[in-house]
Amino acid sequence: VQVVESGGSLVHSGGSLRLSCAALGFSFDHYAIGWFRQAPGKEREGVSCISKDVSAYYADSVKGRVTISRGNAKNTVYLQMNSLKPEDTAVYYCNAYYSTQDFWGQGTQVTVSS
């Protein structure tokens, strides 16, 4: 059972990226999925999350620039990020949680150059 993030890259300010979070060995069906990020020297912070009934939440710092969605296959969640800023630079982590089950991925690096 594993959660794997992908899609991080180096982009210029104003660019876009789509991050993916994939479930390996289980399904995201009943899970709420959250995206978090951690910049160097800073604490991990919540970016966005989506509930099992597809209600979405966004941090103020990314609202209007980021969209979270569930894939049709029910084992993938996407984070579409537009109008990226240098302050979005961080390692982005995916978290799947349901009841007492809580899975974290290893993270994917997003670097936004000015």
Shape: globular
**Number of helices, where a helix is a run of at least 4 consecutive DSSP H or I residues:** 0
Q: Helix amount, in percent? A: under 10%
Structural class: mainly beta
- Biggest beta sheet summary: 7 strands, mixed
Query: Secondary-structure element order, as H and E?
Result: EEEEEEEEEEE
| Computed CA radius of gyration, to the nearest angstrom | 13 Å
> What is the mean pLDDT?
95
Distance between the termini: 38 Å
Strand content: over 45%
Count of beta strands: 11
Stretches where pLDDT is under 50 for at least 5 consecutive residues are none
Task: Give structural notes.
A hairpin with a 2-residue loop joins strand 9 and strand 10. This protein has strands at 2-6, 10-12, 17-24, 32-38, 45-50, 56-58, 66-70, 76-81, 90-98, 101-104, 108-113. The mean pLDDT is 95. The chain is globular. The strands form two sheets. Strands 2, 4, 5, 6, 9, 10 and 11 form a seven-stranded mixed β-sheet that branches. With 114 residues, it is mainly beta. It contains no helices and eleven strands. It starts with a strand and ends with a strand.
